[in-house]
Amino acid sequence: MPSLNSDSILSVNNHLRASFSDQSVLILNALGGIDEVEDIILLKKDSTIKSQMKILQLKSAINSKINIAMTELDAVAAEYDCEGERVAQMAYYVDNINSEKNNRVVYYSIVAGALTSIAGAIITNDNVGNVVDIGGGVLGAGLGFATLNPKGKKVEFIHNRNILGDVWKGKLDSDNFPPFVWYMYSEKKFWGNTDNKSMLEHIKERWLKFNFENDLDAANNSVNFNEGGTYLASDLHNRNLMLNQMQSATRTIHQIINYLLLDLDKFVYEYK
């Protein structure tokens, strides 16, 4: 993975900051495009057609590296999207099962209440009637309680390749992500914030607060961040939300790279 020592990289390439933003310099370094830019600077001193053609060739080489990076970003975003669709379908399935279960419980509760009313109207013996009323009331209340507090159905969902696990841990222990994509997630200077945090750190804070109600133990032990297991509907909905957030964050990197393309075009155009 490219170096995260951004201050050192910017210091060494300080002369490029007149034409490129700090973010653009860091991306060029990560993609191995600094050498081409240095060659362009030298060729600018020569106004011959040959030099101009060489500059365009070097620019094309940089663009090729950028296109590869964009393709990697698209591939990762597509995986988030596909995984999110699969999880959403599973959540929908479990929700429907739970809904059908609740409907049956409501039906039985209504029947129990109706039978109690009928029995109360038919039975004239006070003691027997009281027993029926109480028994029916308890049965109806029990079914109603089950309706309000369903435990819900569960599904087994195994994912040995867990694209959320590395994000939560904040370190790449697998080959789930291309090095460049992980670098963009990890480098703090790409996210334009004053608290000096990377995208990974911001995402983790958001998940902890809104998905796990600041319960760090629950988050660390969540089925979402390991190899899978038994999922409740709430777990599936949580997973879908987190996948969608990561897809959006990954697509945001496109905009950062677009600024590099703009800087590069201006850099070459100024020569002309």
TrEMBL record:
Protein name, per record: Uncharacterized protein
